[in-house]
Amino acid sequence: MDTRLTAEQDEIRRTLRELLHKRCGVEELRAAVDSPAGYDPALWSALADRLGLPGLALPEACGGVGCSATELALACEETGRALAPSPLVATSVLAAPLILALGTEAQRAGLLPHLAAGTRTATLAVPGPALATALALTGGNGGQWAGGGRAGGVQARHTTAGWRLYGQVDQVLDGHSAGLLLVAAHTGGYARSRTLLFLVAGDAEGVVRTRQTALDATRPQGRVQLRDVPAELLGTADTDVLPALTALGDTAAAVLAAEAVGAADRALERTVEYVGQREQFGRAIGSFQAVKHRLADVYVAVQSARSAAYYAAWATTQGERVGGLALAQALQALRCAAGEAIQLHGGIGFTWEHEAHLYFKRAAGDELLFGPVHRLRDRAAETARLFTRGEVAV
Predict the structure, then answer these.
(1) Enclosing H/E stretch for 376
(2) What is the set of domains in the chain, with CATH numbers?
(3) What is the pLDDT of residue 389?
């Protein structure tokens, strides 16, 4: 593994950081999350036009740039630094790869170029609390995570006119604004129940969407109600979506780990700046040994998480699945960095208006959606077979 970044990768990071520095400061960020969509459409268009960011990891034949998950992870590290609210995770990390993997030729040709160009957004409509399970990050995804029947969720039935969906999905990333919904639904009745994925236009008749209050406002979520809505099956009736979701989960975890590392690095950077300026007893508080030790621990955690995230992103191209473990380490580093930022900023850091709370909410919100950390690690240990019954791995 060559750990050096290529010239193209460095250019992606540099250009994206410059653009976000100009267009996504704290004031712009707060204004964007308070808007109906939860993000700035003008910034999203700029990311698409200047960098091709929505289609960065899609093949050129589908209108994308043709890069790998590594480049997408590096880009998300920069969006994580700025906590930039955008449809990037929902569209490019969750929905588009599934359409690429499972869709028919017509579906890929009709949908992916628009997603790659940023002219249309998409999301994976899975109940928020079950998202980590559906992606096989915290356990096997063969259970009833999609709901159905008495468990709620979404049911699908086939009629002479095609597929119809009915039900409700809560806590869907960008569920209130995405132009395309990729809905996980149960079909086949109780005895022969199986989960399939369906394509639903966000503005289709019978779709009722409401933005929900989320802990992390930079990741807007919505409630999606489907009232006998016409839908198109993704792929064919023989398509097995569970292996595709498992593969997607590992890649998504690697990308999300890089994003969390970017956020943690920026939180640490801002804290180091502050303790170098804030004075107590006639000297900067950053000169006190106790403060140095605390920040040194955070630095080690962030750098270790960065190494794990980079390796996980590279490993996705080699068929190795370590994304969940990298995500666990990155989320822990982000929580540590954000917590220390709040404490070392003193009284001002404990006010809700301070920027440090945005990073702390990102850490807590991501753990609710994709974790928690101990379950991510437990699943990684289970997958690697570190522990077996009656034996302890040394």
Answers:
(1) helix 373-384
(2) 7-120 (1.10.540.10), 124-239 (2.40.110.10), 242-384 (1.20.140.10)
(3) 57
